[in-house]
Here is the input.
Amino acid sequence: MKNLKISVLAAALAFGALAPATGAELPVYKDPAAAPAARAADLLGRMTTEEKLGQLQQLDGLWDTGAYREEFPKLAREGRLGSTLNVRTAPHANALQKEAVENSRLGVPVLFAFDVIHGYRTIFPVPLAESAQWDPALAERAAAAAAEEAYAVGLKWTFAPMVDIARDPRWGRIVEGSGEDAYLGSKLAAARVRGFQGADFAAPGRLMACAKHWAGYGAAEAGRDYNSTDISPSALRNVYFPPFKAAVDAGAATFMTAFNDLNGVPSTAHKANIAGVLRGEWGFKGFVVSDYTSVKELIAHGLAADDEDAAVKALSAGVDMEMVSTLYRDKGPAALAAGRLRAADLDASALRVLEMKFRAGIFEHPYIDPALEAKTLLTPEKLRLALDAALKSLVLLKNEGALLPLDPGSRKVAVIGKLADSREDMLGSWAADGKPADAVTLLEGIKAVVSPGTRVVYSSGCYTGDASEKELKAAVSAAAGADVIIVAVGESALMSGEAASRVSLALPGRQRELLERLKKTGRPVVAVLFNGRPLELGWLDANIPAILEAWQPGTRGGLAVAQALFGLANPGGKLPVTFPRSVGQVPIYYAHRATGRPTSLTEKYSSRYIDSSSTPLYPFGYGLSYSSFTFSNLLVSPASIKPDGKALVSVDVKNVSARAGDEVAQLYIRDPAGSETRPLRELKGFERVTLAPGESRTLRFELTPAELGWHYAGGFAVEPGTFKVYVGSSSAAGLEVSFEVLP
Ligand code: NOJ
Here is the structure.
């Protein structure tokens, strides 16, 4: 009954039945035909200071249940609850919305937000794994599916995509982004924004996106979460900013500021970035939300003297909405009265929030149909997509003697390691409302793909912490006589993500020892890695014949890994981040600059270590396949262009094996001389292709000023001179051509 009443009211509102009888009296803000900006301006003109400040307040509901807190209905009735995070599902969202829409003076709806990062209920691979797909169109489809599910439980705003470039695997949040590269990161940022928002985020099944964390959060010193950052203007412009710019260009509705101090100004009060770069230079028209209590944290940072000062500094910098701390609301009126906060700044922020609410369509459609959830979550199509996404994110790191794929008709398969039998660890650290019970484990996946006659023996061996001697011994005896031993090692889902930085990149607990003992059995060992960051895999690489990187692969992850292990699928993902030999090499990334003394194995006074190689274990862009590919005929034309011209690159890629598979052709450039130094290689194009045995395809790439240019101290430019072009299967790509940019 209650639900019926809600939808009748919603329909009445939508058709203006509750509005005054004559059209002339209809306030502009209630007129769905009026432009969002005009409606927002009209509404703002009717608001008290408290109501305006209320629109800038976002409060946290109860994450576990999706319920709202006791005080929320009253705040909503008073028009003092602009948005919530974590409140969701029709009963909670609709009941709270009713207070805002039907029982408040102006009827402004609440905007419901949630961290829908890589799926809502159907969980896709973690973002770093999606990046390993090198397939933005697939990430876009996953984001669209996530939006559909989230919308069905009353949400209209996701705190995603996270587009922070990260070059330090100690930082646990590296798992939430696209890895180390600005170009790949930009393609994924745009794809995810498009996926969440579609062409119009007001449409049913779509969400407003939020590019986060603006800016530089991924460069946390020492890889310690929330730590300060010190980033050069060149690195900001060329490395950290591009994915954010791509998100703006793709139409991202909102931005979230970061927790970090950036070069002496905390991101949540960084006027030069928010008002200057984001709104001024890039023309961003959406609104900016703080991160969780990051307005209040301006005091701990040492920027703000007290609560009021923090509110004034954040709001004046252009941070429109305050997440969880309540300083705008509590200190705003006094700051305004004293002239410390400009009324114009408050109005500008309130206007931006209101305009987005109009654009999101929630004035016309404030409620969610309670029947939608059951019809939308975990549908067969979404589960198929989750399987496909997991398959495409697998990266084959080593496959000595073509040990993989395994024979599904094997007599005995030993599956070792708690991670092979852990549902929650398939989902990742930001799994929204993903339920471990929905997830397929590796053990289940293997049982599903092997022949009926195959004996699958499981032993937990060890997890990520300590393990007893008895457990390790049991694992070794379970493996005795197996045709193959499949060992799941890596990290638990909660070992990466927010507040999960590590000083060590080693396999945790007794995993290495477990592997050593299993190797001693003499049976072939395959290591499957579940992890959210690059790990130190030097020992594995030297001792284990086959290594498959599975990340946290999501709801259908275990099945995907099993299909790949047993040859029902062919891995073709590539690393979106460099895997170091040891943590001491961090930060290590492919797009570094040259030095005056390049690394040399024979020259002591070269840029190198006395106790390690300088090279990574696995470079950016690396990944094997059961197929083999060759690249040839790398051509560029014309031989010279003007700085505003474009060069066309073509290359042939051929599957020279007897098995169909995927290759990711990667194009890198280098500008070897100019007014500033640039990286040795810069990714500027890629394409993932599926090729049948023997099939060859000519791929074409365009190099325009967008790809060739660089943000120099004096601005963005393509400088005249020689440009080198490399194409191949990783950042170590071998084929090379060059062309000239004429003055
Ligand atoms: C803090 C995180 O930094 C941010 O990414 C997230 O969106 C908010 N909490 C809300 O959960």
Observations:
- The CA atoms of residues 221 and 686 lie 31 Å apart.
- Residues 1-21 have pLDDT under 50 and may be disordered.
